[in-house]
Amino acid sequence: MLQPVRTKWRKAHKGRISGTASRANFINYGSYALKALSPDRVTGKQIEAARVALTRHMKRQGRVWTRIFPNIPVSKKPIEVRMGKGKGSPEYYACRVKPGRILFEVDGVSEQIAKEALYKASAKLPIKTKTIKRFA
């Protein structure tokens, strides 16, 4: 499961995901990519599940680039705990994804295989996505 080696702060505010992505919004490495269309938090487990689905469908041919990383700690209180008594401990790490962000890039396989693989990966994510192709 993906998580940072160390963080500056142990706990983070929830925050809001507003606006569109200004970074990682163009294809840099591969020929085909999965682009986010809606804002949400994507957990480390979801990123890993999508990556596994991608590589399995491609039968470990070609190359996959993951353009997101879960660096935000998400805290949670134990079940049946009364209100108050401070914030819960960090449970997992997530990445705040804005619309327009490139999530995964693929290269070295045919267009049909790439599109099917990216579709299977998108089924593992909690956000709406679309497959895009590099021009030129």
Question: Can you put this structure into words, describing what you see?
Answer:
By secondary structure, this protein is α+β, with helices and mostly antiparallel strands. The protein has a domain at 32-79 and 96-133: Ribosomal protein L16/L10 (Aldehyde Oxidoreductase, domain 3), CATH 3.90.1170.10. It is 19% helix and 28% strand. The chain has two helices and seven strands; from the N terminus they run ββαββββαβ. The protein has a four-stranded antiparallel β-sheet with strand order 3-6-1-7, with helices on one face. The chain has a three-stranded antiparallel β-sheet with strand order 2-5-4. Helix 1 packs antiparallel against helix 2.
Short description:
The protein has helices at about 45-55, 110-120; strands at about 30-35, 40-45, 65, 70-75, 90-95, 100-105, 130-135. With about 140 residues, it is α+β, with helices and mostly antiparallel strands.
